Amino acid sequence: MSTKELIIEAAFSFYSKPYTKDFSLNELAQKVGISKPAIYRHFKNKEGLIEGMQAHFFDIMAKYLAERRLSETKMAQEDIPFASMIQFFADNTQYINYLLVQFSRQCDFEKVIYAALDNRHALDDDMRKKFQSMQDGKNRVKKTESFFSGVSMLYFIKAREKVINKSMCENSETEIKSIKSTEEFSRNLVLFIKSGFEGSTEKDDILHPTIISDGRKKELREICKINTCDFPEENRIFKAFATVIRKYDFGGVTIERIANELGMAKSSLYFYFENKNAMIASLIEKEMTMLTQICIESSSEARNFSEYIYLSLHSEVEFFKIRPSILPICGWLLQTSVEGDEFFRPEICSAWETKLPQKIKNLNLGFPMCRDTLKYWIGMLPVMLFLMVTNHKIGEEELDELLEKLFDFIQFGIEECR
Q: How many other CB atoms are there within 10 angstroms of residue 213's CB atom?
């Protein structure tokens, strides 16, 4: 490996943890074992290094897609865009974290991916059509299986990584042995995304879909509606926190910037909170408790687990409509909370969640699955959907269609989602 390649690989290693602060060239040079001036022999400046990292990332994707496409069946390619990348990402999770950071910084990053892969001749006609259709407002609803499957793949890869890290820390040999190879994991995940709960569970299982009539769906949507008159006003510090995330990205959240956004002294915030983490935890706890309580109240009307999922999805989206500031903070939580639980996570469960066993043994993705893994997946999908809706300025009517597609995706996979 050349020195230039070593520098790029070392730069990607800073993304080995989900929450990545910006790194300096001094830190990079120390990691490679060279002097800082030696970096400038290969890159004009840090911007040049970042461009080199992005080019390297797309080179890997293009090469891997081209190689795997030859060995995959046509069916797998049609059903799941980038299915061949699952095993690679599972083996190299630093690239997932890099990808998540890029998506958080660029709302049109999917266009960047499309252009880069197309220029490298890595896309076949079917993949090209799927990418293009996501940019076409007329066909976007019909093609959202690409978005749902991509988000779910990343989520379950990260969930598997967390199980591995936890098992190793606790020296749990039993759990470590039950974690299958990345090859088997990717194969199981493909099957799950293709067929959802219907194709992955037995008919008598609580997770197995129950058909909901159109009339009943209308009743459930009414249950989820929130009376804004009775809703408490949004906390101004919370709004400032969200604005700082939008302006400076996840790694740029500081007490100083939040105070500046509020037009107050940093010391004034410390009067109420001991430090940044205490402030963030307090703000998130209040909002997430409110969201959780709303979901629990609405889901108590569910007659089965399918109705629980339907109510949960619609309750979250109704909450986001009147609390838009929570969206960037949810995105921040998705990145920061993978490694640990230092920030608040509501532990209360709905009546339907408690009916699930702690260990989901009948849903085999190649690693031990717990109740919370499914709970956070179902809860995370509408967050990502609403972020897409916001970025692409999607109207309420189309949002309703997308929610129906999302529900079908969870229940029946991308086969039914189309």
A: 8
Which DSSP string corresponds to 178-210? HSPPHHHHHHHHHHHHHHHHHHHS-TTSTTS--
Over the chain, what is the mean pLDDT? Answer: 81
Structure tokens given for 42? 């290969």
Whole-angstrom Cα distance, residue 389 to residue 243? 18
CA nearest neighbour of 329 among 158, 107, 104, 174: 104
Is residue 92 classed as helix, strand or coil in its secondary structure? coil
Q: d(Cα 36, Cα 26) in Å, to the nearest integer? A: 6
Residue 6 has a pLDDT of 94
| Residue type for position 267 | S
Question: Tokens in use for 230?
Answer: 């009775």
HSE (side-chain half, CA atoms, 13 Å) at 68: 19
- CA dist 312 and 306 (Å) reads 10
* HEC assignment per residue over 144-181: CHHHHHHHHHHHHHHHHHHHHHHHHHCCCHHHHHHCCC
Banded pLDDT at 416 (limits 50, 70, 90): low
Asked if 394 and 121 count as a contact pair (C-beta separation under 8 A), the reply is no
Q: DSSP state, 229? A: G
Longest dimension (CA), the chain: 68
What one-character-per-residue DSSP string does 127-142 give?
A: HHHHHHHHH-TTTTGG
CA 330 distance to own-chain centroid: 10
Round to the nearest angstrom and report the end-to-end CA distance of the chain.
Answer: 44
Q: 82, 309, 64: which is closest to 190 by C-alpha?
A: 82
Mean pLDDT of 13-30: 80
Nearest to 69 by CA among 120, 124, 113, 118: 124
Residue 343 has pLDDT above 50, yes or no: no
Q: How many CB atoms lie within 10 A of CB 247?
A: 12
- Using alpha carbons, select from 229, 227, 258, 329 the residue that is nearest to residue 287: 329
| The model's pTM | 0.78
